[in-house]
Amino acid sequence: MQGKLHFISGLPRAGSTLLSALLRQNPKMSAGMSSPVGPLFNAMLRETAMNKEYGLFIDTEMRRKLLHGVFDAYYADARPDSITFDTNRMWTTKMSALAQMYPDARVVCCVRNPAWVLDSVESLIQRNAFDLSGIFNFETGGTIYSRVEGLAGLNGMVGYALNALREAVYGAYSDKLMLLRYETLVTDPIAALRAVYDFIDEPYFIGHDPDNIAPCDDMTEFDRRMGTPGLHTVGGAVAPRTRDPLLPPDLFERYAQTEFWADPAFNRPGLRVI
């Protein structure tokens, strides 16, 4: 593909959609709520494995070219001077492959206290009381406890992303990561953007305007099909919002303790936490 490629990953409900909306204010930059490139990447790996009928004819170098082809095809219209951010929570599990395929690429990981991430999902569910959400497979049953346990499980939307983040942070390529805290993004978006530009070694674009964010109709339609209106809604202006948690205290406290990057003992040399 033409142009430069970087990635956005990390936790859900942690600001990645807002970050993408702000980055898109730079005409050279492309970023979205998520893309199908991650699932296509996994599908290519799966279909070219040695246990497949034609796996015998595909060696490692051919597999690498095919994986490059996924990006080349999806971003075929990228301009030579463009900067593309591909968003998917799975990229933190593919750091070794990304480092080999795109050595100059960087991964911005949006993070937020997991208790508030879970609480944010519950807030959406309660707000859309007459919609069945695809987050929970459009099921009608369950309680706030079963919903949280499902989200925070090993394969849950939040649990998977949190473990994938740990894998990347403690892995061999943590120097290619930056953790961008939700609190930083919503209280000082300009400082957050400047940190991102510095991280990817690009000059800052002075046209960013956190008080005037353009809507994205594709996100609205995606949320409607998920039965979860507002899942990717970004307001017209960046502003911190405060409210009391909806999770019962025992649930909130349990998951509040999993914010490992805020532990005073946390130390990963070379890893930026903004």
Task: Give a quick summary of the entry.
This protein is 41% helix and 10% strand.
Could you explain the architecture of this structure?
Helices cover 41% and strands 10% of the residues. The protein has 11 helices and 6 strands. The mean pLDDT is 90.
What descriptive keywords fit this protein?
alpha/beta, 274 residues, six-stranded parallel β-sheet, 10% strand
Fold topology:
Blueprint: E1 4-10, H1 16-23, E2 29-31, H2 37-47, H3 60-74, E3 83-87, H4 95-101, E4 107-111, H5 114-127, H6 144-152, H7 157-169, E5 177-181, H8 182-187, H9 189-199, H10 217-225, H11 249-256, E6 272-273
Parallel strand pairs: 1-3, 1-4, 2-3, 4-5, 5-6
Helix pairs in contact: 2-3, 5-11
What is the global morphology?
globular
Strand content: 5-15%
For the termini, the CA-CA separation is 30 Å
Question: Tell me about the biggest sheet?
Answer: 6 strands, parallel
What structural category characterises the helix and strand content?
alpha/beta
Give me the number of helical elements: 11
Helix residue percentage: 40-55%
Number of strands: 6
Unreliable segments of 5+ consecutive residues: none
Main sheet strand line-up? 2-3-1-4-5-6
> Which value, in Å, is the CA radius of gyration?
19 Å
* Residue-averaged pLDDT: 90
Helix and strand run? EHEHHEHEHHHEHHHHE
